[in-house]
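Suppose a colleague, Dr. K., hands you the sequence of a protein chain of 129 amino acids and asks what its three-dimensional shape might be. Before reaching for any lab equipment, you can write down a predicted structure in token form. Begin with the sequence itself:
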Amino acid sequence: MKVDWSLPRQIFLAIMIIGCVGTYPLLKFGTNAIFNAVIVGAILTTVNVLLGYAAIEYSLGKSTTTFFKFVIGGMGIRLFLMAVILVLLIKVFQLHVGALISSMGIFYVVFLTLEVFYIQKKINSKQQS
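The predicted structure, expressed as tokens, is then:
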């Protein structure tokens, strides 16, 4: 089975675009704590979407039950783990809450949109084959 690298490329491109747009305001107006929290939020959501990509790639050729277990069930597990890590980052590491939540929200929405379009594209191409 050939791996489709289009989603990781789109994720990388999204990180670059958001990074280019957001770096100047962060460096000009933000503190070091805010900058660090934004970077950690971006890393956490990037790992999350890459795990989702791995689940999609693994389950696409399999049965519908397997697909839903890995993609939808995996999404629930990933969200739970992100919540646990988020609490740890705030309570233990005392990262800037607003910056962490904001960066995670922005990246999560962008990555989730890319992930949904990727799944739709893969399912449509599978149906046409």
